[in-house]
Amino acid sequence: MQWRKSLCIGHPLSEVLLVSQAATQARDANEARGRQTEQAAYERGLADGEARLSEQLLRQRAELLELQNGVLASLQQSVPRVVRQSEAGVVELALEVARKLVSDMPVSEEMVEAAVRSALAQAEEGVGFQVFLHADDLALLQRSNSPVLLPGPGNEAMHFQASAEVTRGGCLVETRFGVIDARRETKLKLIRQSLNA
């Protein structure tokens, strides 16, 4: 190596190294290897990140599918339950409307006679009957000389009596075998039971 100019240094130099071209090339080669190693590490990290993201997306997709299936199963179970509840509500509403209509209807002679005949049809023939009516219903039948009150074939052993237990429009028939309940509230109760069964 040849120098063209002189170098003047004002103080003594320490730890000065002479760098050769080979050392520069080795340094450049090390830097290139470092960049290659860094690039390879970057690509491995990128591939690992993509793989993890893919796995996470697959897990999330499976969880979402499981959630969707759970919601659909819940809806399939809910629909019949809602239908049953709606049916029960409609039945209760219809019975309440019927009860209101029946309770607001004026009691007539024909209505009371029909209740007595219906109850007697359930009793055995040839048995003594005690028929209990509401006091107003009994008075209504007596005022109109209803044929139900008149003795005749099959009616010989029938006795009519007013009772506070019987509401308007209904009757109780007592035989030696038991009581036949033909009150309106009992009929509504039986209808409710048959509809809820």
Could you name the key traits of this structure?
4 helices, 197 residues, alpha+beta
In words, what does this structure look like?
This protein has 197 residues and is an alpha+beta fold. The protein has 2 domains: 22-104; 107-196, hypothetical protein PF0899 fold (2-Layer Sandwich), CATH 3.30.2320. It has helices at 21-104, 109-122, 135-143, 184-196; strands spanning 129-133, 158-162, 171-175, 178-181. The protein has a 4-stranded mixed sheet with strand order 2-1-3-4. Helix 1 (21-104) packs antiparallel against helix 4 (184-196). The chain is rod-shaped.
Strand content: 5-15%
- The CA-CA distance between the termini, in Å, is 115 Å
Rg calc:
52 Å
The CATH topology of the largest domain corresponds to hypothetical protein PF0899 fold
Number of domains: 2
Strand order of the largest sheet: 2-1-3-4
Instruction: Provide the CATH architecture of the largest domain.
Output: 2-Layer Sandwich
**Could you give the order of the helices and strands?**
HHEHEEEH
Q: Give the uncertain stretches in residue-range form.
A: none
User: How would a crystallographer describe the biggest sheet?
Assistant: 4 strands, mixed
pLDDT average, as an integer?
Answer: 82
